[in-house]
Amino acid sequence: MRTSGRKFNVIDGYVHERLAIFTSRKHGQAGRNWATRYTYGWITRLGVYRLTGNVRWVTAHASR
Asked: Please, where are the H alpha helices in 27-61?
């Protein structure tokens, strides 16, 4: 995994954690067991895009 992929993974995890903690507080659920309540399926259903994934690199050719 490239450096950018690791950074994007960290950002995705942070967004997931903050949304889950925010929702827990909003619904009066105490504790930090948000990871079991709010999975990546939950965050996908919210419509949040994930930054991780495969990027295909294409060689650019200058036109003449």
From this structure: 34-37, 40-45
